[in-house]
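Q: Structure tokens for this one, please.
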Amino acid sequence: MAEMLAYLDKNSPIHRLAGATKLLCFILWSLAAMLTYDTRILVFMLVIGLTLFKLSKIRWKEVSFVVLLFGLFLLLNNIAIFLFSPKQGVEIYGTEHLLFSLAGPYEVTTEQLFYLFNVTLKYFTVIPIALLFILTTNPSEFASSFHRIGISYRITYAISITLRYIPDIQRDYRNIALSKQARGNDLSRKASLITRGKNAMGIIIPLIFVSLNRIEAISNVMDLRGFGKKKTRTWYWEKPFDIGDYLAISLIAILFISSIVITFYDGQRFYNPFE
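A: Here is the predicted structure, written as tokens:
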């Protein structure tokens, strides 16, 4: 079973970029996606993001579960937006094309659907690049890349340990689950949903204790080695910039500047096809 959000060592142009390069590109990409509501820019960025994902040689089955979780969260987010602000699209675009009415004040309009489409597009524009940054960057280089742009190494090391710990939690969960099943706790699809839920809950307490033991061991090792005593530190894993890094940063910077110019050239963030 593939581990979620774990570093995948592959030979691709994305993997060969320095961690600091991927971090800077991810920040610029995310800012561009967050600042714009121009559908044309978001669609273009989505196509570029999917192309980069293809170049990374990461397979769909290695990220499918994470993407499905994001999709579920996004569905709930869109439902919440409609429940709490069913006229948001009408207020933004200044027109109202009614499709059909629901109970009370809830009316489905073309403007609201278009606004929710743009919200969805923004998420799916960022998700591939976020996954690329996490899955193609070695955790040690991940920490050094943050430190390289001026963030305290204490913070970067905490983030690095967190990323390293995610696969460990998944392995511990599977090992405990297999032990429980060997003792007769059925977690397969043959058991009812309620039974599977109860048996799965029995894994949580052992998992917590295993995690606490690992945290204590890591903390003791860091204290014994004097972690945090000095203001700076060196890194075992750090890539120098080469031509590919400078090219990647330049292209993303051009994309970022272009998206800002196109988004705000008429004084507003929203592309309005209803005018």
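A few notes: The chain has two domains: 13-138+239-264, 146-224. The two ends are 50 Å apart (CA to CA).
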